Amino acid sequence: MLVHILGPLRATVDGVPVCLGGRRAQTILAVLALAAGRAVGPDRLVDAVWDGLPPASARAQIRICMSALRRAFAEAGAPDAIETHTLGYRLRLAPHAVDAAVFDTRVERARSLAREGRRAEAVMVLRTALALWTGPALAGQTSAALQPAVRRLEEHRVRATEERVRLEIELGRHEDVIGELMALTAEHPFRERLHGQLMLALQRSCRTAEALAAYRRIRRSLVEELGIEPGPELSGLERAILLGGRRSA
């Protein structure tokens, strides 16, 4: 059984898609998947489904949704996917049956390779990790209870992307990542590390004027919208570019 949360919520059993039903059932499955095999109490499920404003029949409706999910998994070939626990309900999963866990394992492997100086291998592993994403984490799931986990997953995605880009630049592939970095900086206008990587890639591609223009854009955004100046790393990179120096990402 595999549960996919790095994109729209999906579940498969031996490649057979599981029909997850409506919003409530999907919210329940998402909470169970994020619990990584730990039991989830019914009150937590109620809060996630109704965002803290449950009807009197909430617990009964949770049981109905749980029965529907169990039936759907059974029809796909996994009748024991969800078990009733003394503390609530638990999704029975193999260690890497959630794509987010596979992602984390691959990212840690890439970091280990990078520490060993095996940058090209680390880039390849990071690419396989990032390829697991098929859209925003839990795309379409609107429960407020899920949003902290969504933000955490998205942060991990961006950090892994930053690490891959840094390694690409260190490998001399600065020209190859400029277009990607332009899109990323537009998507994350206040993320200084990405803007610094764009500046560095442009400078190493002999596009110094564009690198300095990129600095001016991020500084203007930070000052006008957040009321802060760029951090020392970004401002130091600008000075290095002005002096014609070389900096790492």
Question: How would you summarize what this structure contains?
Answer:
This protein is mainly alpha-helical. Among the domains are: about 90 residues, Winged helix-like DNA-binding domain superfamily/Winged helix DNA-binding domain (Arc Repressor Mutant, subunit A, Orthogonal Bundle); about 80 residues, Serine Threonine Protein Phosphatase 5, Tetratricopeptide repeat. About 60% of the residues lie in helices and about 5% in strands.
Describe the structure.
It is a single chain. The protein is mainly alpha-helical and 249 residues long. Among the domains are: 90 residues, Orthogonal Bundle (Arc Repressor Mutant, subunit A); 78 residues, Tetratricopeptide repeat domain (Serine Threonine Protein Phosphatase 5, Tetratricopeptide repeat, Alpha Horseshoe), CATH 1.25.40. It contains 10 helices and 5 strands; from the N terminus they run E-E-E-H-H-H-E-E-H-H-H-H-H-H-H. The protein has a 3-stranded antiparallel sheet, with no helix packed on it. Strands 4-5 form a two-stranded antiparallel sheet. The protein is elongated. It comes from Streptomyces sanyensis. This is OmpR/PhoB-type domain-containing protein. Belongs to the AfsR/DnrI/RedD regulatory family. Keywords: DNA-binding, Transcription, Transcription regulation, Two-component regulatory system.
The CATH topology name of the domain at 2-91 reads: Arc Repressor Mutant, subunit A
Helix/sheet category: mainly alpha
Query: How would you name the CATH homologous superfamily of the domain at 2-91?
Result: Winged helix-like DNA-binding domain superfamily/Winged helix DNA-binding domain
Beta-strand content estimate: 5-15%
The main sheet comes to: 3 strands, antiparallel
Helix amount, in percent? 55-70%
Number of strands: 5
Instruction: Tell me the Rg in angstroms.
Output: 22 Å
SSE arrangement, N to C: EEEHHHEEHHHHHHH
Count of separate DSSP helical elements: 10
- CATH class of the domain at 2-91, please? Mainly Alpha
Unreliable runs, pLDDT <50, ≥5 residues? Answer: none
Give the overall average pLDDT: 94
State the strand order across the main sheet: 1-2-3
Q: Whole-Å distance between the termini?
A: 39 Å
The CATH architecture of the domain at 2-91 comes to: Orthogonal Bundle
